[in-house]
Amino acid sequence: MTKLFIAEKPSQAKDIAAVLGAIERGDGYIECRGDITVTWGFGHLLELAEPESYGEQFKKWSMDSLPVLPETWKMDVKKDASKQFNLIKRLLKQTQHVVIATDADREGELIAREILDHCEWKGTIERLWLSALDEASIKKALASLKPGAETENLYHAGRARSYADWMVGMNMTRAITLLAQKAGHDGVFSVGRVQTPALALVFERDETIANFTPVAFWDLLIHTTHGGVTFGSKWIPDKHIDEEGRCLDKSYAASIAALVKGKEAKVTKFDKERKKQAAPLPFSLSSLQMEAGRLFSLSASQVLDIAQSLYESRKATTYPRTDCNSLPESQHGEAKGVLAAMAKVDPSIASLIQGADASRKSKVWNDAKVTAHHAIIPTAAEANIADFTDNERKVYDLIRRRYLAQFYPDMEYDQTNI
Q1: What is the distance, to the nearest Å, from the Cα of residue 64 to the centroid of all Cα atoms in its chain?
Q2: What does the pLDDT look like over 320-379, one tens digit per residue?
């Protein structure tokens, strides 16, 4: 075997193998032209061993045995993953060249390299760095494979994260549970590096709401008419106010209302300034979740699942698990093709595509601001929008609008202060 590609999941492997030239599918792998084999995991095939693997003293939960701090970390093959792991182990013995083709992030790097480490495999490693799973994107990534050393630090970061999770979770769960049992409580009290601080934030917010004391305050809105135009003004109180500047004295607010009602107002200052506002940047995952939640009442997990489907199944958008709102400058040259594909995906927006200037270069193209992944944008693949679910259409529309806006002039408006 010339090369072994290790993907993160079967669907990803199928897309890569199709571009490589799939010949025959076996049980857990796909043979391709050029003596290349593509195999896959199901996410993590390995997991960190339980505390009892490090000594008999850890089999019984006891404060005397804490903390558990392994000097050499042990990994176990997950019970439901042994068949696929053993297959990959066998395939590794047949090659000296591996291409890591898992998701292009810290966790993807960890998934592949922990297998290589556990199998004590030695050989050449390259990295397939994919931000989209359409054919054109895969071909482009295959033509520019990264040296394995370039992404190895992602593996160390992922491994450090998993060690931290294990040490906090295993030690603190045992300690808190034992203390709780001593105080008369039953059951296990689960503690986690992420879950416990998150739970604390929810608890503190809930306590703030429960202990909130409402305060009555009064606003005064004045409607002024001039030349047939009516506009509103808000009174800014100068006394009887709290720390937020709100008037707490109803009689004082009422006296001001009575004082100005029906009276003539005088404009003391009038400023008008022409302003420009650039298009909002394309979405990161978190900003997409917030916008879809605001507009469509979708939960964060629903938006992630939809974005994952648009990326993985529909091939319509790029990799969703990103914290970045910018795009690499090298992608600006692909804009014309992406816009053309968007028009074919949905002919109803053809006029909007025609009005876009593909040569326009907004501030979104900025290599210095691109992290491991760029912002979520449409791909150049000609997906079939008729197959999309209603929620997929909604989320896809948000993503394409943000991208399309980059090729239109800034919004102009007059800001008037009276």
Answers
A1: 41
A2: 999 999 999 989 999 999 999 999 999 999 999 999 999 999 999 999 998 878 999 999
Distance CA 116, CA 130 (A): 20
Is residue 101 within 8 A of residue 36, CB to CB? The reply is no
Q: Which residue in the block uniquely carries the two structure tokens 């593996």?
A: 155
**pLDDT for position 1:** 85
- Residues whose CB falls within 8 Å of the CB of residue 416, separated by 6 or more in sequence, listed in order: 270, 271, 272, 273
The whole-angstrom separation of Cα 395 and Cα 299 is 12
Per DSSP, the three-state class of 222 is strand
Place of tokens 């009064």: 218
Which two structure tokens, joined as six digits, stand for 361? Answer: 């270069």
3-class SS of residue 97: strand
Taking the CB of residue 15, how many other CB atoms lie within 10 A of it? Answer: 22
For helices 390-405 and 335-345, give the axis angle rounded to 10 degrees: 150
Buried b (16+ CB within 10 A) or exposed e, 345-378: bbeebeebbeebebeeebebbeeebbebbbbbbb
Read off the tokens for 29: 């792998």
142-197 pLDDT, tens digit per residue, is 999 999 999 999 999 999 999 999 999 999 999 999 999 999 999 999 999 999 99
3 state SS for 217-259:
CECCEEEEEECCEEEEEECCCCCCECCCCCECCHHHHHHHHHH
DSSP, collapsed to helix, strand or coil, labels residue 68 as coil
The span from the CA of 186 to the CA of 259, in Å, is 67
Among residues of the chain, what percentage have pLDDT more than 90? 92
- State how far the Cα of 303 lies from the Cα of 288, in Å rounded to an integer: 8
pLDDT band with cut points at 50, 70 and 90 for residue 418: confident
Set 155, 311, 319, 403: catalytic member: 319
Q: How far is the C-alpha of 16 from the C-alpha of 18, rounded, in Å? A: 5
- Catalytic, 54? Answer no
Q: For the whole model, what pTM was predicted?
A: 0.82
Cα dihedral across residues 386, 388, 394, 399: positive or negative:
negative
Dihedral (Cα; 169, 174, 177, 178), 10-degree rounding = -160
Whole-angstrom Cα distance, residue 316 to residue 140? 16
Q: Tell me the per-residue pLDDT of 198-251, one tens digit each, with 9 for 90 and over.
A: 999 999 999 999 999 999 999 999 999 988 989 888 999 999 999 999 999 999
